[in-house]
Amino acid sequence: MTKLTHFDEAGRAAMVDVSAKAETSRTATARGRVVMQPETLALIQAGQVGKGDVLGVARIAGIMAAKKTSELIPLCHPLLISKVTVDLVPVAPDAVEIEATVKLTGQTGVEMEALTAVTVAALTVYDMVKAADRAMRIEDIRLVHKSGGKSGTYEAT
User: Fold this and answer.
1) Where is the active site (predicted)?
2) Where are the domains of the chain?
């Protein structure tokens, strides 16, 4: 099998050719958080944000982002995703934890889709409550699990 690379024979950036890879069941999970003032989290939990249901809108934004990852990240393969879940959980006193899991059966992994889902969900939370708290921080977005494919399983420590 040819070595996977993002460079063609002339050294130019190119999409990796995965056509020779076997289709396998693949899953990736990413996590991150939005840290805010306790008062901001209280507004979100009470449903008192003027723009609406912050966590519900962020969940939908994350799902949509996972489906559009190849349009956002250069050289990323368009994938036929079979499932995306995005969970947003308020964590007292001052954060919203975000976890996204993406699944498919295909020739390439879904790590970028899971990371993109978490990132866009976090940005949506920020956007919806920035008027109340401009000092919010998006933190610690990372891959925590990956399974399937030739490289096997990865679990963050």
Assistant:
1) 127
2) 24-155
